[in-house]
Structure formats: C-alpha cells, structure tokens
Amino acid sequence: SKKECPDDDTRLERLMIRDYVLISSNTYLRVGEARQLTWGDVEKYETHYEQPIDEVSLDDNDYDYGKEVHLVHLNIRAETSKVRSSRKLITRGGEYFKRLKERQKHTNDEDLVFSMDGTTHLHHANKRKHWHALMTGIGITNYYERKLTWYSLRHYGITQRVVSGVDLIDISQMAGTSAKHIESTYLKYRKEQ
Q: What's the pTM value of the predicted model, to 2 decimals?
C-alpha cells in the first residue's frame, strides 16, 4: 500500500515481485527462463470455466456453474532454456500476467516481463532483499538453512501438479525436463501424501 511503501518505484517493484512469485509457482519456469521472458513470449490468454464436480447438466454458454480459470500460453525459447530446447506451455496464471502488464510501463514484445525498465532484469541483490522480506513476512526465518530460494517456486509448482495427479509426461513437457527426472525428484511427495 502507499501507506506502507510511499515510494512509487519501490511499490511497483514489490508488486512485480508478488506477481513473479505467483507466476513462477504456476508456470514452473526456471529462474533464468523467467529472467529472460519477454512480453512477446506471452502469446495469448484464455479463460475457461471448471466443470462442477456433480455433473449437473448445464448449457455450455452458462458460465455460472464453475470457477474461472485464467490460462496463459507461453513460448519458452531454446536460447533462454537451461536445456536449450524450446517449449510451449499452457498453464494457469494468466490473470497475474495481465495484472503485471497493466502496471508495467514497458510492455512491447521485446521488453522483459520482470523488469522495471524493460531491458534489465532485477539485480540479484534486489531479488535477495525481496526474498528475505517475503520469508520474514511469512515467518520463515530459517529459509537459508532450509535452502528455500526463488527456484523453490518451480519445485512448489511441480510438486503441486504431482500431488494433484497430473500425468508426469504432461508435467515434464510443461516444465521442460524429463519424466524420469520428475519421477525421481517429485514422486516421493505423492507417496508421502
């Protein structure tokens, strides 16, 4: 809020960080992929409506029966990917991209999504400062010992999809990693649950 953070630029940066957290948790982007993501890589948005659990017969044009799900289509370019392989993904979180774009001043196709000026990504020291503020704000004071980092958001998103029962092949394609890696790294969470 303006009361808590009167400086406009700092407040905009904090709001960008909030959307970065939500986007990273939904898209499983690696930190480097997110850093290099441009507005041109955000190809389109869709809104879908979840079907009710009890299969009530409703007309397809009646959108009162389900929760809105905002999807986004992303193009991850090979040159920005750790594995140097391009991928396209459709995932939740479209509303966070839209909200971020409405606030940002630099939103041309070549402009970086997570940047205050469109050309330079957030400096590592600033990201570290924001991470510390986030962890402290939610009461996690031992985040360093627990090895919680920005990359943990990717792990969180993948883990949530595994726990939800999403097919490992689908997760691996969206995350840009092998199904074997998903199985060996994340399947233990499903077994523990």
A: 0.84
